[in-house]
Structures are given as C-alpha cells and as structure tokens.
Amino acid sequence: MNGAESLVRTLVASGVEVCFTNPGTSEMHFVAALDRVKGMRSILGLFEGVVTGAADGYGRMAGKPASTLLHLGPGLGNGLANLHNARKANTPIVNIVGQHATYHVQYDAPLNSDIVGIARPVSGWVKESPSSRTVALDGSLAVAAAMEPPGQIATLILPADTAWEECDGPVAPIEARKPPIPSKESVVAAAKALKGAKRGMLMVSGAGLQERGLKAAGRIAAATGAELITETFFSRLRRGAGIVNINRLPYFAEDVVETMKGVDLLVTAGAKPPVAFFAYPGKPSWLTPDDCAIQQLAAPEEDVVAGLEALADELGAPAEPAGVAEASRPELPTGEVSAGSVGNSVAALLPENAIISDESATSGLASYILAGGAEPFDHLQLTGGSIGQGLPLATGAAVACPDRKVVCLHGDGGAMYTVQALWTQARENLDVVTVIFANRSYAILNIELMRVGAENPGPTALSMLDLSNPNLDWVQLAQGMGVEASRPETAEEFNDHFAAAVKAKGPRLIEVVI
Amino acid sequence: MNGAESLVRTLVASGVEVCFTNPGTSEMHFVAALDRVKGMRSILGLFEGVVTGAADGYGRMAGKPASTLLHLGPGLGNGLANLHNARKANTPIVNIVGQHATYHVQYDAPLNSDIVGIARPVSGWVKESPSSRTVALDGSLAVAAAMEPPGQIATLILPADTAWEECDGPVAPIEARKPPIPSKESVVAAAKALKGAKRGMLMVSGAGLQERGLKAAGRIAAATGAELITETFFSRLRRGAGIVNINRLPYFAEDVVETMKGVDLLVTAGAKPPVAFFAYPGKPSWLTPDDCAIQQLAAPEEDVVAGLEALADELGAPAEPAGVAEASRPELPTGEVSAGSVGNSVAALLPENAIISDESATSGLASYILAGGAEPFDHLQLTGGSIGQGLPLATGAAVACPDRKVVCLHGDGGAMYTVQALWTQARENLDVVTVIFANRSYAILNIELMRVGAENPGPTALSMLDLSNPNLDWVQLAQGMGVEASRPETAEEFNDHFAAAVKAKGPRLIEVVI
User: Fold this and answer.
1) Considering only alpha carbons, which residue of chain A is nearest residue B278?
2) pLDDT tens figures, A410-467
3) Which of A351, A369, B88, B388 is an S-S bond match for B384, by CB 3.0 to 4.6 Å?
4) What share of chain B is helix, strand, coil (3-state, %, to 5)?
5) What phi and psi, each to the nearest 5 degrees, are found at residue B286?
6) What pLDDT, on the 0 to 100 scale, is given for residue B241?
7) How far apart are the C-alpha atoms of A437 and A485, rounded to whole Å?
C-alpha cells in the first residue's frame, strides 16, 4: 500500500466521508486511491474557491470535517478566501495540499512555492508530512486538529513521493478533544451579575445557536429579563416557529452603539464582545459601552450549551423559555418584484427544515426578518466578510444534508466570484435553489463610500462599484453550467418560479433584477 | 490632501498608468482619489484572479508595472495564484492591498487576517505603510522595487487611516536600478567554452527573447553552431518571419533528457538550467546531462541582451544571424474542426504584430508550430503552471497594447478558473479573440495519471479529470458576460468565424468542441 492509500483509509476511518477537490499531477496518487477505498465521496469543483467554500458548508452542517484536495501552493491560494471565511466560522476542515516530491523542491520548478507560508494565515494546524510512513498518522492528527474545539482548519501538505512510496498502512483515529465545560465559578459569577444588572445582555455564538442552546438562553431571559443577541454574521443559527428568537447585532457600528446604549452587563457565551466591521473616521471600533461590565460565561472553545444550561439552572430559571418565535407566514406578494417581495415570497414558501445560505448583502433584510416565523430552518451566513462564499457554502450544505432543501440568497457581485459552484451543483444534482439579487452593483460600497468620508465621488470611483456595463445575464450563465434558470418579471412570477423550484429536486437558479 | 491621493499621485508620477482593481470598503479613499488625479486608468475585475492576471499581462507587454488594488487579505488571496504565475514570469507589479485602520487591527474584525503572511510567498518586496505621511514614499519605493531587475512583485499594504489622514503630498519617483551588464569574464569564458564545445547549447530567457536578443543569439549560433533553446513556458517571446527562431524545451522530463543528450556545454543567458516540471517515480528532476559543463553568461537579473551582444562580438560573429524564420502561412484547413485545424487556421489568419496569450495546454501544439512563419508577433505563456491565467493575461495585454490584436488560445478547464475576465473585456471593449478548446476534460491529467504510476485508475479517479457532466456551454457563458460568441462545427466555419473576429474590434469568443 502506498502513502496516499494509507492516508485515504485513515481519513475514512476518522469519519471523513467527503473530499471536495480540484486535483493536479502531484495529487494523482491520492485520486487513484479513492477508487481503492470505500467510503469517501469525491466531488469536483472547477475552481478551488468552490472546493473550500463547499467544505465550509459541509463542515457547518455535518459538524465534522470534509477533506479538500488542492494542487500545491496556487491551488491552496485559490481557496484561501473561503478558508478565511471558514476560519472565522470555526468550521472543521482538513486540507490536503499536494506538493512536489521531497527531493524535487530544491529545483524550484514552475509550480514551486512556499506552501506552509500560504497555509499558515488560514490554518490552526499545518504540517508537511516528511515520509510515506508518517502520512497516515499525520492524517489522523489533522482530523483531530480540525475537530479541536471550537473547530479549525488543519492543513496537511503531502509531497508526491510520500504519496507514491510504500508505507505501513493506515492508523486508527485519534479521538478529538471534547470542549471543556465552563467553570462553576464563571456560571455563578454570570448568574450573580445578571441578577444585579439593570439591563443585561446575553451574547451567544457557536454551538449555542442551535435549538438546545437557544432554549437555555431563553430560560435565562425568562429568569432575568436579559436581552439575547448574537453577532451580525453568524456561522449557523437555528430559526423559526417554536425556536427561541435571538436578535442579530446591526452591521453599522453606530447602530450597534445605539443597540447597546444603557446595557450595563454583557454576558458572553461563545461570543466575543462586538467590534466594528470596518473602521470609520471618528467612529469607535470597540462597541461595548465604557461603563458596561463584561462577564464571560463560556469561551468559544468551551461547551457553550453546557454553560448556558448550567447558568439557567443556577438562576432557577423556569422550564419554559422566553422569546419563542410564533408561527407566521406572510401572504404571497403581488405586483413589482423587488428585494422586499422576494423576501416575502421566500418566507411564505420556505420548506420545513430548509437551509438558507445567505450572502444576500444589501438585499437580504426582508427575507431575514420575514422568515423568522416559518417552520424551523438553519440559517448560514458569510462569516469572514470575503464575498463569494454563498454558492459554494450552499453546495457543501446540500452534500451534507441530501434530504433538506437548500435556498441560496445571493447578491450578484459576490456570486460572480465563485460562479463555478453552479456546475458542481448540476453535476451532483444537488438540491439547491439559488436566488440572485441582480442590483448590478456592489451596492454596499455605494453606502460605504459615503460613510468612510470619501467626498464627492466622481465617475471613476462610481464606475468601480457598478456592474451594469455590461449587464450580467444570470440565466445564460447558469444554463451554460447546466443549471435550469429563469428571470421572473413580477412578484407573481417569482412566486411561481420559486414554488416550482422548491418542489423540484436538483439545482435551479432564479435571477431577480432589482 | 489625504494619504490615498498622495499615493495615487506618486504612482502616476512614477509611470504607473493603470490600476486593475476589485475594491472594498477599506480601499474607498484610494478609489475616490482616482477621480482627483489624472493619468490613472482604473479597470474593474469581478474577481481578483482576473485583476492580478491582467496586471501580469500588462506588465509583460508594457515593461513596467500596473497597480492592483485589492481588498485586504482575502482579496489578495483570491489573486495569489496569478501572482504566483507573474512571479515566475518576473513581471513587475505593484499590489496595493487595503488593510483595516492601524488602530482597528487589534480588534480582529471579521476581515482581519495576516496580510503580510499572505503576501510574502508571492512578493519580492512587502511593506505595510505605518502612516499617511509615509504612504507616498512607500508607493515610490514599491514601484522601484517592482522594476528591480528582472522585475518582481511589490506589495504595499495600505491601512485605511493612512489613506484617509492628511499628509505632506506626493513624492518624486525613485529611479529604478538598471540591470547590471554581465562581466567581461563571463563573456570571455562563454566564448572560450563555446569554441571548445562539441555540442554547445545556448539557453536564453527573459529580455533575451525579444528581437534584439534573439538576433545576437542567432549570430552566436552562426559563429559557433550552438543550438538555441528557451524554457518550455516562457514569459514573452517574439516570433515569426524574419525573427531568429528559438526552440522550446519539451514539457516531459524524458523528452528534455533526449533533447539534451550529447550536449557537452550549456551556456545560460537569463535562464536557469532545465528541471522537470513535476517529479515522477524513477525519473530525474535535474535534466542537464552529468558530463555537460554549465557556463553562465548572464544571470536573470543581469542585462541579458547586452550579454548576448557582447558574446557575439567577442566571438567575431557575422552580422547576419543563423536560424531566421522564413515567412510561411499554411493553407486554410477544411473538413472536421480539431485542435490541429484550429492551429492551422490561427496560423493562416493571425494578424501582423498580434499577441498570443497561450494557455492551450494539450491542444496548442499545432498552433504553436504553424504560427512560426506568420508576420512577427508576441507569444505569452503560462509561466507558473497555475491554470486560469490566459484570459486575464490577454485582458491585461490588450490594455497595454490597444492597437494590437490579442488572440487567446485556452483550454476549457483552465478558462473556467477566471472566466470573469470576459466581462472586463466586454466592459473595456478590449480587442481580444478567445478560442476555447473544449475537450471537456483536464486532458493533461489523464496523461499524468499514467505517468506518475497511478495504476488502474477507476471510475472515481477518471471522473475527477472529466468535465463532460454536464457539458459547459461556452457560448452562453460568454454571452452571459456580454461577449459575442459562436461555436463553429467545421474547419471552414471556424475559418470564417475567426477571420470575422480578427477583423472586428472588441472581444469575441469561439468555442471549439474537440
């Protein structure tokens, strides 16, 4: 058995079931091993940003890592932006990056580059395996590293000769470390602080945003009146009727300041105190009021759910949480199609237990608010601010959850970054409905241009934010990659197209010109 | 005047005339300054791989740097693969990478990352400017660094507050260092070695591949019988009738070994001795024969043309070079359309002084050989092995040379990586004819899979190299981005479509299913 096969067998034994890849010559032994080992589904992306973004979507939904397989430094480079987003989401991912044979690196062939240097900024764990006899163990370590709480990116560099040389076979999985339970002291301190607070706020993130954590948070709210909040851009949030509702912090710093005015206690559970997304002249970066006490209940790497439940119990909170969302569906909209009408339609027609992959940017407000009363669903967001994540994220989520409908709400500017994801959706017949909000601009930048104090923008500046010359035709783009697509002209047409897309199985794209 | 404006003014004064960009919030002051300063053309790409690849194409043809403007670490990350290719081409590029305000970095906002770490593997020069008062000087240093022989990538990181704070205005350009003239000793030694060699080979690269360097190389060949050779994947080569012809090294290591068998002297002029592109089990990485002497005439950072001319004079070479290519055009092909027929058509119809951007991969042999007798043109290749360079490279070359026709020959697999380049070509009405060789596979990998010794590839392995499920429709993809496109079915139809595309002004795409 060669090193590559020992690695694939070890990954499978460690619970890695999917490999998103765009391989090259140096990865051919790994690719060949995929046929000799059962249990690893191999999914091709036509660009590495698709591969890494899909691994993020998979990891968020599966709660365990997919593997990527990338072609040397440039292949990793192409995947770097969505690895950045995944890093900010604490998603477990195992990158396998091919490298020249150990003895070949010295010759500085055209594809030679500093792979460790490229990997380091996005990886919590990086290792270049020195021998075919160490590859399996390193693979096992990589999976354990990826699962290190709260989840991180582990990058294993695989020189070609360590893949093709003989080895001693696979190794057994290494058990991942469980997240530590928050200390009794921090639970007691949080309870005491909340009882004494005039206006307490409980900020929850990570694993705390699923049903159990939210229920405990709702019980804490019922006992203390604490307001529940999460960050503006969360990794994964369970939402909908019967689930405890948690508000998001606003995007703009001054709105966060307004939200937190008068808050004298911030209890954090897996979350970091809010900071501004960008700096703006004369505006604060640190957004917690100066006279607000901060009490950490659970660090991001701790067991947030256990912390929340312990706190609820410590407070003697009632069994019934406060703030449970009521069932509500808006009427189907009529008339002009707009971001608002689309939000309305999506909220009205969202199927039960759907997954929303949300990179709707400036067009997403209505869908975000209105969907809160639908049957429960999972909501995934752009965590690292690097646009071009939504289509790959939807792709990976659909692979992780083949029985659930994925609805991808996406701005046109961001969608162009990793548009190749549509081809993978077609190839794998993934159950994703993509809605493109075609406002034909980087709309957020028109706002930001003013907010940063760039005075009197001229035609050159404005043209750098404008996507209307020429207009993108999303129907042709999608069809060119094998995805059925349409462009409804009215709200009624959108209702029909979206309902049909939800009912059908397989990828569909709907372009809405707004 | 703010720092951003001082930087733009300094760049323009230093000869930087074009900024390829995909900006975000942290770059808005730079964008706004573009309207206040004359002389900087600003070109939007919908993905950063387009931006950096275009800067490479521009730099190769203009002989001076374009600027890029990229959005923090992830924006740079998206551009990394084509910066890798540019680094291998020694192309001068000035990257301007936005960063959070200096005081904001500590808060680790979502877009925060280690930008210096991401930049270092592809950059010869990296600096983060600490103040609005240093930005202009740093911009001037960046341009000089980019022009440092033989050309390199300079990355200037621009924190948002250094862009928006007041400064002392622009600074004067710093004169770039000229490439040093090769020493008399190395010229004399090369002449002596060539006179004594049984079979001498002169390997030329970099600036030596333009008309003057090739002429001197041809004179050396006339005087000594030395064989002229260049690397497999060169940055820019002048070719065609009346130009001294220089052979390329073959791609596969064993073919290089065959080519160099019996060569007892290798003289290098701006080139490095050949090495294998990849390592293969049991095959050599270092390809120069063991008993072949190596004599360096000029290092890559030296004045290669001066070295070649000095060597020709030292040898008392005749004024007329050997190996001048004769004018020849093939007949227009008829019958089935194929990679061969397309090569034939392109060679027959290539306009004078065209620029070929060549990422034709396994489909390019015929066009490469047959075009050698056309009117002189420049031939650009994929230098770093990271596919997805050809469309952006063509885009940048067309910006640098608006009066020349650019012909982009591209495999379908690589073209999908940076397909967004077509939109920029449409927006800027760039004079590029793109030919897509749609073999619907990563064809080279089918060959490499065997060559690396991966035995009995199964259906999973083969499906990772296959792009036929679903087929890409390049006509729809191009039209979806505003580029006229067609899919000729016969050689005659291709002749007609290509001739019409060459005659017209503006971008066209022709898909050839092979």
Assistant:
1) A100
2) 999 999 999 999 999 999 999 999 999 999 999 888 888 888 877 678 999 999 999 9
3) B88
4) 40, 20, 40
5) -95, 125
6) 98
7) 14
Token pair for residue B298? 């000029």
Non-local CB neighbours of A504 within 8 Å, separated by 6+ positions: none
Query: Pairing relation of β-strands A355-359 and B484-486?
Result: unpaired
- Which residue in the set A385, A417, A467 is minimally distant from B110, CB to CB? A385
In chain B, what residues touch A78 (CB-CB under 8 Å)? Answer: 49, 78, 80-81, 386, 388, 417
Which structure tokens are listed for B313? 């004079």
Distance CA B51, CA B35 (A): 20
Question: Residue A257 CB: number of other CB atoms within 10 A?
Answer: 17
> Is B65's Cβ below 8 Å from some Cβ in A?
no
Give yes or no for a contact between B43 and B413, defined as CB atoms under 8 angstroms apart. Answer: no
Distance CA B311, CA B189 (A): 9
CA distance B51 to B75: 10
B465 closest CA partner among A8, A480, A22: A22
Whose CA is closest to A493, among A509, A510, A479?
A510
User: A76-85: per-residue pLDDT in tens?
Assistant: 999 999 999 9
CA distances from A188 to A185, A195, A267 (A): 5, 11, 12
According to DSSP H, which parts of B337-388 are helical? 339-349, 365-370
User: Which residues partner with A490 through β-bridges?
Assistant: A336
Give per-residue pLDDT as tens, B434-482. 999 999 999 888 888 888 877 678 999 999 999 999 999 999 999 999 9
- Rounded to whole angstroms, what are the CA distances from A190 to A183, A288, A307? 11, 17, 10
Q: Which domains does chain B have, with CATH numbers?
A: 3-164 (3.40.50.970), 184-314 (3.40.50.1220), 339-513 (3.40.50.970)
How far away is chain A from the Cα of B473, in angstroms, using its nearest Cα?
A: 4
Spell out the residues 6+ positions from residue A290 whose beta carbon is closer than 8 angstroms to its own: none
Beta-carbon contacts below 8 Å between A and B: 317
> Quick check: B471 contacting A, CB < 8 Å?
yes
The answer to whether the Cβ–Cβ distance between B107 and A417 falls below 8 Å is: no
Contact assignment for A107 to B285 by CB distance below 8 Å: yes
Q: What separation in angstroms does the CA of A129 have from each of A22, A97, A98, A102? A: 20, 11, 11, 9
* Euclidean distance between CA atoms A246 and A269, whole angstroms: 13
Cβ contact, residue pair B276, A109, below 8 Å? yes
Q: Tell me whether A386 touches chain B (CB under 8 Å).
A: yes
The shortest C-alpha distance from B81 to chain A (Å) reads: 5
C-alpha to C-alpha distance for B64 and B92, rounded to whole angstroms: 6
CA A326 to chain B, closest CA, distance in angstroms equals: 32
Chain A: closest CA distance from residue B385 (Å) = 5
Exposure on the CB side of residue B173, measured as CA atoms within 13 A: 13
Q: How much is the pTM?
A: 0.98
CA torsion sign for B121, B123, B127, B128 is negative
Mind listing the pLDDT tens digit for each residue in B295-349? 999 999 999 999 999 999 999 999 999 999 999 999 999 999 999 999 999 999 9
Answer yes or no: do A470 and B31 touch at CB < 8 A: no
- 3-class state of residue B88 by DSSP: helix
Identity of the residue numbered A71: H
- The one-character DSSP state at B154 is E
- Degrees (nearest 5) of the Cα angle A483, A484, A488? 130
- Residue B410 clears pLDDT 80, i.e. is over it: yes
Q: How far apart are CA B266 and CA B247, in angstroms?
A: 14
Contact A35 B461 (CB under 8 A): yes
Residue A26: per-residue pLDDT: 92
